[in-house]
Write a structure and sequence with these properties.
The complex is a heterodimer of chains A (270) and B (251). Chain A is built from 13 helices and eight strands. Chain A has 270 residues and is α/β, with parallel strands linked by helices. In chain A, α1 crosses α12. In chain B, 16% of the residues lie in helices and 29% in strands. The chains are: A alpha/beta (270), B alpha/beta (251).
Chain lengths: 270, 251
């Protein structure tokens, strides 16, 4: 049976799609057969971040409506043969998703894949609800600022009450916190919430802190999941996240300010 | 809530047993005069026909069985059925009445009567016939479990309502709302709204280990976060009502 992971946040623009792409690639690179699904019907982005937008023929909604088979719609990643992408439809809206249809697709994927990563749209409406409904694990992506933290908190409430597991009275969804766009310098200046502040409000298991990094935007623009940029801090942080999720004991990084040497200070090396 | 399944865990089970509680009107019979009962019951139903329509009903015969002549139970049940009321249990029945109950597939109950004081006085409920079995039946009381215990954080957007006391082992997030007819105990920080004594119990209190609430209220007397700014918010705190004023104390 596959493990279904939902990447969610409530708030938009916090890095859900970046995270979905990165952890899906990370899991696949570790040798686990992984599918990543874009639930953001009408505002599809995952294919761009994954760099496969020019290979999209059929999409998630086609599969749900029986207009295409899963095999036809899944796009195999060119960099890693264990990774498949199921893109969203850009011409429909979220009402095209039905609980029954999503359940059927996930069930079929579960036969073949080890991990299924569901990239949730922002908000708490239909798309987001369906993305999390069947999940086993939830990655809650949060930025260190109050509105994002509160939206995540709201999302956690929904995860605890409206998922399949909650409705069937099964073991609750495992929730993990992923703190993204973190900048220790700005935390020090009091412009940003610290890891402790966020943990105080959310009390979740911290899976990783992703530092604010230029490489994320570069990666998005070039259609490469940032985890493949092994030199960048964000790439390293996502690699840590995947390792921790798979049960490895990896110490947290990027929480404290980096100590720059004299040359670093002089030349502003990042 | 307890679940109890014997089915093999590999299959999705087709059913499960759960325990839950709900409230139902209780018809307390005081008289054995069937004519009188029928007449008064009709009057009551006429006052609130929608309330009684197809309503489940518990029948308490304890008091009427204190009379010398036992009540004829069978005609009463037939009358109730005719009035579209569905008896779902009988309490305090004698042997003959028990047999009648079995005949109509009505199970026997022992009505628990512990929620007496905190409730509204009976005259404000719809009718005397449906009053809660108050102190009178407390000799056969088993304490009701109407208190609520929450072990997880209460998240933004969630609402909780406890009929008795509400105990929360974690925090209450901003944007969450917790309400109780009794006291509220929060062992984490209170950042959302907490309303104790919502049915008017002025003796109820709120306890929390840090007070960053958006709103606190006891029996309708409330304060918003604006009024709470000056306090030492990091300390364990209790909130109580004294002479119509909310008192906030560090513990």
């Amino acid at each position: 049976m596959a493990r279904i992971i939902v990447v969610t946040s409530g708030k938009g623009g916090v890095g859900k799609t970046t995270t979905s792409a990165a952890i899906a690639m990370g899991l696949a690179k570790k040798g686990h057969k992984t599918a990543v699904i874009d639930f953001d019907v009408g505002l599809r982005n995952l294919d761009l971040i994954m760099g496969c937008e020019r290979r999209v023929v059929y999409d998630f909604v086609n599969v749900i409506n029986g207009e295409a088979s899963l095999r036809q719609a899944l796009i195999k990643d060119k960099r890693c043969n264990q990774l498949f992408i199921l893109p969203a439809s850009q011409t429909r809206d979220k009402d095209a998703l039905t609980q029954e249809g999503v359940g059927k697709v996930l069930k079929e994927l579960s036969k073949e894949f080890k991990y299924i990563v569901c990239d949730s749209p922002a908000g708490i409406e239909r798309g987001a609800n369906l993305a999390m409904y069947f999940a086993d694990d939830a990655f809650v992506v949060t930025n260190p600022e109050v509105s994002s933290v509160r939206d995540s908190d709201r999302m956690l409430g929904i995860l605890a009450s409206k998922s399949r597991r909650a409705e069937n009275g099964e073991e609750a969804i495992k929730e993990y916190l992923l703190l993204s766009r973190y900048s220790p310098e700005r935390v020090k200046l009091g412009e940003m919430l610290s890891v402790e502040d966020v943990q105080d409000i959310l009390s979740l298991h911290l899976l990783g802190v992703i530092p604010e990094s230029k490489s994320v935007l570069n990666a998005s623009n070039s259609g490469t999941p940032v985890i493949l940029d092994e030199e960048s801090n964000a790439g390293k942080a996502y690699a840590d996240v995947v390792a921790r999720y798979l049960g490895e004991d990896v110490p947290h990084r990027f929480i404290d300010e980096e100590k720059k040497g004299i040359f670093g200070k002089l030349f502003g090396k990042k | 809530m307890s679940t109890d399944t014997e089915a093999p865990i590999y299959n999705k089970s087709a059913l499960e047993f759960k325990s839950s509680s709900f409230s139902s009107p209780v018809l307390v019979i005081h008289s054995t005069d069937l004519k009188q009962i029928k007449h008064q019951l009709k009057e009551k139903i006429a006052q609130a026909p929608e309330f009684f329509k197809n309503s489940p009903l518990l029948i308490d015969l304890k008091f009427c069985n204190e009379n010398e002549h036992p009540l004829e139970f069978e005609p009463l049940i037939e009358f109730l059925h005719k009035e579209k009321l569905f008896p779902i249990g009988v309490s305090g029945a004698n042997e003959e009445q028990k047999n009648t109950a079995f005949k109509f597939y009505i199970p026997l109950h022992t009505i628990r009567g512990a929620h007496a004081e905190s409730k509204l006085p009976p005259q404000s409920t719809t009718a005397n016939t449906t009053e809660n079995t108050n102190k009178k039946s407390s000799d056969e009381a088993i304490s009701t479990v109407e208190n609520m215990l929450i072990t997880q954080p209460v998240r933004s957007g969630q609402r909780l309502y406890a009929k008795g006391d509400l105990t929360i082992l974690s925090h209450v997030s901003a944007g969450a709302e917790v309400m109780a007819e009794g006291n509220i105990h929060i062992y984490g920080a209170l950042r959302g709204r907490a309303l104790a004594g919502v049915q008017g119990n002025t003796q109820s209190r709120i306890f929390c280990s840090a007070l960053h609430a958006e709103l606190i209220s006891i029996a309708g007397h409330y304060k918003t976060s604006e009024d709470l700014d000056t306090l030492d918010q990091q300390k364990p705190t209790q909130i109580l009502l004294q002479d119509q004023a909310l008192i906030i104390n560090n513990l």
